[in-house]
UniProtKB/TrEMBL annotation, chain A:
It comes from Pseudotabrizicola alkalilacus. This is histidine kinase. The chain crosses the membrane at residues 6-24, 40-63, 69-87, 115-134, 162-179, 191-218, 243-261, 281-300, 312-334, 377-397, 404-430, 436-455, 462-481, 493-516. The keyword Cell inner membrane does not apply. Gene3D superfamilies: 1.10.287.130, Histidine kinase-like ATPase, C-terminal domain, Sodium/glucose cotransporter. It is a multi-pass membrane protein. Pfam families: HATPase_c (PF02518), HisKA (PF00512). It is found in: Membrane. InterPro entries: HATPase_C_sf, HATPase_dom, His_kinase_dom, HisK_dim/P_dom, HisK_dim/P_sf, Na/Glc_symporter_sf, Na/solute_symporter, Sensor_HK_Regulatory.
UniProtKB/TrEMBL annotation, chain B:
The keyword Ribonucleoprotein does not apply. The modification 4-aspartylphosphate is found at D53. This is Response regulator. It comes from Pseudotabrizicola alkalilacus. GO terms for biological process: phosphorelay signal transduction system. SMART domains: REC. Signal peptide: none annotated. The keyword DNA-binding applies. Keywords: DNA-binding, Phosphoprotein, Transcription, Transcription regulation, Two-component regulatory system.
TrEMBL record, chain C:
It comes from the Bacteria. The chain crosses the membrane at residues 28-45, 57-74. It comes from Pseudotabrizicola alkalilacus. Keywords: Membrane, Transmembrane, Transmembrane helix. This is Uncharacterized protein.
Length: 895, 122, 96
């Protein structure tokens, strides 16, 4: 097949995937997740377990060692049908703690330790590098097999060039869809959907080749079995050690591989999907491996002796002249490679940015306050990390020369990531596991793995001198990389697996037994191990009242984005029975906020950032014990006693609240009367004094005119005040007549701006507007809404104290509501006053009045209530900021 | 002798009215619009009478009064308090703080003149 | 917390009882799986010269299919009832 057609079909396929990812993202953005979150998509996305290694390499593996390749699929099958043991718990913990990666899980479990995050990240990157190289290699290999040089003048470029193009293209795709947004929970609907599509393609491709082999080349299953019996692999040698060891390694890898953890735990939208995947994913693996042996047998039978068995899936249809089938197989292999690389690099980039870049940044940053947009930094570091990870893979591919059999490289990576297993499994089942134990275990395991398996894989004399293989380092025989402690008869892979896992677990257990965990560690340990136990009281990690809610809000906005942070804070405040956006910094709220932030930047970083604002989390072991005994005591109470008590407390609280409300009403009424008296008397004083002066006569005419004008102005002021008071009373009684109609929001803002420009006309204001967003038709009482806008704009004109004042009016539409924000660049309103400004006659302080009766915002509030909307003060916007929210369609109230 | 009056009142129209009434009556009136610089102004000018509004931007009239009474040089200075609130509470507070006279807005011009005369000549 | 009794009841209602046994089955399944998959180690020692690839393969695929079928049955029955009976304190697997 001509090379250019091959490249074109690849491009077309990638563009198609682009389209799929893009469409899925758009659906998700509109909140119509629907089938994007179905168990089917979840199961298919898990299929990134089957990489190009599986797609091409399994046949090669079968051609070399018979049925042993099945262990790679049987191991995960056991883990998945045993989901009730481990996977269910992992997924629950992942969702509850908003885990972003396997590094985050382990770091979070052991007291949000950044050290562990770094260790896991380093191991994962090192282990993944050859694996990514393997994918690049298989794609380039398939290119070169497929695109045999033709005489039509278009010969394929060298394999290096192909690898560069593939790596670059994958980096681009991953960056585009993998780092588009920094979600609270790291989920990428576009990528997951594209991967599900690729899963279908590779399954269909492999099955198509298999069907072709069994029913078209052979005469059905019976003939196929006869051919297997007649082939070179009719008698396979089952090596018990390797069989069991590989089952174990594959089972461990399916949990520990960063990309598997990403799709299985991080991208999981619903725990129930796991129940489906528990049988559907093994079924997928079953289908993927069903035809491996027939293809291998047929390849050995039909193809020339020197043919690379790793490429049988491609070369067999090609040799039979089935171009279309070969094309399909090629796309299947291409899918396997690309989907693996995309998810692996996202998972690794998340780990690198959360556990290496962010902590370094936090430490280097000079000031305590969070400055700049953290989101941009995180996204940038992820994009760079993706490039670096793929670059490493490419470098390894160039270095290793791409000659090793595919299966060997894959198994090296499996054993590498299996080093996470003891820390992870003991971490979620055993509260005695400690940070130091985990760090020791993983480090020891990693070193042993690197020394006995990874570094030797480069070949003798490449990294480790050949002498060391024979005599051991410094002539110490029992330290030979292939024969640790004199164990020389084992298969090298098994040898490495055995020693790394044994020493890892031993170091882990010893470390855990000998060290004492810190308080945060114990807290997290309990939360992880007892994740299903809903009755344990949540321990308090943060002390009350040490952090300013406004600082927390500013920090959260930088990480979660303005809108999400405001929504979260508002919901929290509402949960505490407070209006507005600033909940009290209770320990419960702080813990929830930390968890939410952890979903974006990882537990360790989130914890460190919170600590900077709230002081160290000052929980002690005594605190933990107090909480434990407290919850134990509470359980002692009989249910009846408790409910009675609750009833009494509830009633008492209701009474107390009613009483407080009455008292406050009475105080408010007094204050209101006194205020009204003041506001009425002030213009009255001028009117009376000047009218007496005028009646005394004997004045120059210009003074008469001047004083007459003052009397007139003050009379107008009195009238306005009375109008306002009447307006307010009508609004408060809810007897106001609304003129509902459709009006354009942009025109309403125009009207308000024109009208408010009479206030302090000498100040030049810069107004920022978003005209396209404003172009909404709202069914409401336009005059009333404009009245509110005028009030807010004139307030900004009056009170904004910036040297060059600016006002930003931004409009958002969400569901059936429209919000209009008015944000100026002045010094804003002091926190204490924020709760008061909507009260009648509340001026910012009694002293700083600048005319006006102080009824404006009170009227605004009542108007908004009558329009079915709200007006609130938005803290933390860098100036005075008000948010007006109205329903898009206001329906007339019944009756 | 012309009595020198220092008027501290934030409502410009009321301030203008009092200035006019007292000037015609032969006083020399200086007007201030907020409480911040009021204490310094009093100490610098040492007027014969201070007329103080109770609610002022900057420093409230009541606080100015309390500080004037605490300073030996201004301890016996006649001070007239003005208020638009007109509640008994405010009057009591002003008298406790040592106001020489208390006047509720709105006032009749004659009352104002009479009170100023009494305070500056008495 | 008010409705959480201090000690779990000694005997369960039939529905809960069935639920618990289904969970036990879910826990047992991988153990059976491991046993069946390691079985070839016992009856296929490496020094045979039988043509055993085809029969071993068929055995493994049959075991595999049966396990998938059982997992499907179990997960369906668990899934349907998972919501109305969140884990009682007794259901902790290896926990604590």
């Amino acid at each position: 097949m001509p090379f250019n057609i091959l490249v074109l079909s690849c491009l077309a396929y990638v563009i198609f995937l682009f389209g799929v990812a893009w469409a899925a993202e758009r659906r998700a953005d509109r909140g119509r997740l629907g089938w994007l979150q179905s168990p089917l998509i979840y199961t298919l996305s898990l299929s990134i377990y089957c990489t190009a290694w599986t797609f091409y390499g399994a046949v090669g593996y079968a051609a070399r060692s018979g049925l042993e390749f099945l262990t790679i699929y049987l191991g995960p099958t056991i883990v998945f049908i045993g989901w009730w043991w481990i996977l269910r718990k992992l997924v629950r913990i992942g969702r509850q703690q908003r885990v972003t990666s396997i590094a985050d899980l382990i770091s979070s479990r052991f007291g949000k330790s950044n050290l562990l995050g770094v260790i896991v990240t380093v191991i994962a990157v090192v282990a993944a590098t050859p694996y990514i190289a393997l994918q690049l290699q298989s794609v380039t290999l398939s290119f070169s097999v497929f695109a045999s040089p033709t005489d039509d003048g278009f010969s394929p470029p060298g394999t290096e060039a192909t690898a560069v193009w593939v790596a670059g293209g994958l980096a681009l795709f991953t960056i585009l869809f993998g780092t588009r947004n920094l979600d609270a929970k790291e989920q990428h609907h576009g990528i997951v959907t594209a991967i599900a599509v690729e899963a279908v393609v590779k399954l269909i491709a492999l099955i198509a080749v298999g069907v072709f082999v069994v029913w078209f080349m052979a005469d059905g299953p019976a003939d196929m079995i006869a051919r297997i019996d007649a082939s070179e692999i009719a008698d396979w040698n089952l090596q018990p050690g390797r069989w069991a060891g590989l089952l174990f390694a594959a089972g461990a890898a399916v949990i520990c591989l960063p990309r598997m953890f990403q799709v299985m735990v991080v991208e999981n939208a619903d725990e129930r999907h796991l129940a489906t995947a528990s049988w559907a994913f093994p079924l997928y693996l079953f289908a993927m491996s069903l035809f491996i042996v027939p293809i291998a047998v047929m390849g050995l039978e039909r193809l020339p002796a020197g043919a690379n068995p790793d490429m049988f899936v491609l070369t067999l249809p090609l040799a039979e002249g089935q171009g279309a089938l070969a094309m399909l197989a090629f796309l299947g292999g291409f899918s396997s490679a690309t989907s693996m690389v995309i998810v692996e690099s996202i998972a690794l980039a998340t780990m690198v940015s959360n556990h290496i870049v962010m902590p370094v940044w936090l430490r280097l940053r000079p000031s305590r306050a969070v400055s700049g947009d953290v989101r941009r930094l995180v996204l940038l570091s992820r994009r760079i990390s993706i490039g670096v990870v793929l670059g490493l893979g490419y470098a390894y591919y160039r270095m290793s020369g791409g000659s090793t059999a595919l299966a060997a490289i894959g198994l090296i990576a499996f054993v590498g990531v299996a080093q996470f297993l003891p820390a992870m499994v003991f971490g979620i089942f055993w509260r005695g596991a400690t940070r130091i134990g985990a760090a020791l275990g993983m480090t020891v395991g990693f070193v042993v793995w690197a020394y006995t398996l990874f570094l030797p894989s480069f070949g003798a004399d490449a990294v480790i001198p050949a002498m060391v293989f024979i005599d051991g380092p410094w002539g110490i025989g029992w330290l030979r990389p292939r024969a640790l402690f004199g164990v020389s008869t084992m298969d090298p892979l098994l040898h490495a697996l055995f020693w790394s896992m044994f020493l890892n677990t031993a170091a882990f257990l010893t470390g855990s037994l000998l060290t004492f965990p810190g308080p945060v560690e114990r807290m997290q340990g309990a939360a992880f191990v007892r994740v299903f136990d809903t009755t344990t009281g949540s321990p308090r990690g943060w002390q009350r009242g040490l952090a300013e809610p406004e600082d927390l809000l500013v920090m959260s906005q930088r990480i979660m984005g303005d809108e999400d942070a405001l929504v979260f804070f508002e919901a929290e405040a509402k949960g505490q029975g407070k209006a507005g956006y600033l909940p009290d910094p209770t320990p419960e709220f702080m813990a929830r906020l930390e968890r939410r932030l952890a979903g974006s930047v990882g537990a360790a970083t989130a914890h460190a950032m919170m600590s900077q604002l709230a002081g160290r989390a000052t929980v002690t072991v005594e605190d933990l014990m107090a909480v434990a005994s407290e919850s134990a005591q509470i359980m002692e109470y009989s249910a009846r006693l408790e409910s009675q008590q609750e009833e009494v407390t509830r009633t008492a609280r209701a009474l107390r609240e009613a009483n407080e409300k009455l008292m406050q009403l009475s105080i408010q009424k007094d204050a209101f009367l006194s205020q009204i008296s003041h506001e009425l008397r002030t213009p009255m004083t001028s009117i009376r004094a000047f009218s007496e002066i005028l009646t005394e006569g004997d004045l120059p005419p210009e003074l008469v005119a001047n004083y007459g004008r003052i009397i007139h102005d003050e009379a107008k002021r009195l009238t306005r005040l009375l109008d306002d008071l009447l307006d307010l009373s009508v609004l408060e009684n809810g007897t106001v007549q609304l003129n509902l109609g459709l009006s354009n929001l942009s025109q309403m803002i125009d009207r308000a701006l024109a009208s408010a420009s009479h206030t302090k006309p000498e100040r030049s204001f810069i107004i920022h507007r978003d005209l396209p967003m404003e172009n909404i038709f709202i069914r409401t009482d336009a005059d009333r809404l404009v009245q509110v806008f005028i009030n807010l704009i004139s307030n900004a004109r009056k009170y904004c104290d910036a040297a060059s004042p600016e006002l930003r009016i931004s409009v958002r539409q969400k569901g059936g509501r429209v919000t209009v924000d008015f944000v100026d660049n002045g010094s804003g309103i002091a926190k204490d006053s924020q709760a008061l400004i909507f009260e009648k006659f509340a001026r910012l302080t009694d002293q700083t009045r600048a005319g006006g009766a102080g009824l404006g915002l009170a009227i605004c509030r009542e108007v908004m209530a009558n329009l079915g909307g709200t007006i609130t003060y938005l803290p933390g916007q860098g100036g005075a900021a008000f948010r007006v929210a109205v329903p898009l369609r206001l329906e007339r109230k019944a009756g | 002798m012309t009595a020198r009056v220092l008027l501290i009142e934030d409502e410009p129209n009321i301030s203008e009215a009092i200035r006019f009434i007292l000037s015609r009556d032969g006083c020399d009136v200086t007007a201030l619009a907020d409480g911040t610089g009021a204490l310094d102004a009093v100490r610098a000018a040492m007027p014969d009478l201070v007329i103080l509004d109770l609610m002022l931007p900057g420093l409230s009239g009541l606080e100015i009064l309390i500080q004037l009474r605490a300073d030996p040089t201004t301890q016996s200075l006649p001070v007239m308090m003005l208020t638009a609130k007109g509640q008994g509470r405010d009057r009591e507070a002003a008298e406790r703080a040592g106001a020489s006279h208390f006047m509720t807005k709105p006032f009749s011009n004659d009352d104002m003149r009479a009170a100023v005369r009494a305070l500056t000549q008495g | 917390m008010a409705q959480a009794p201090h000690t779990p009841p000694l005997f369960l209602r039939p529905a809960s009882y069935r639920q618990r046994r289904r969970r036990d089955a879910a826990r047992l399944l991988p153990v059976i799986g491991v046993f069946l998959m390691l079985l070839p180690v016992l009856w296929a020692p490496q020094d045979t010269f039988h043509r055993d690839t085809a029969p071993d393969g068929i055995y493994l695929f049959v075991v595999w299919a049966v396990l998938i079928g059982l997992a499907m049955l179990i997960s369906r029955s668990l899934n349907a009832t998972d919501e109305d009976d969140p884990d009682a304190p007794g259901d902790q697997g290896l926990g604590q």
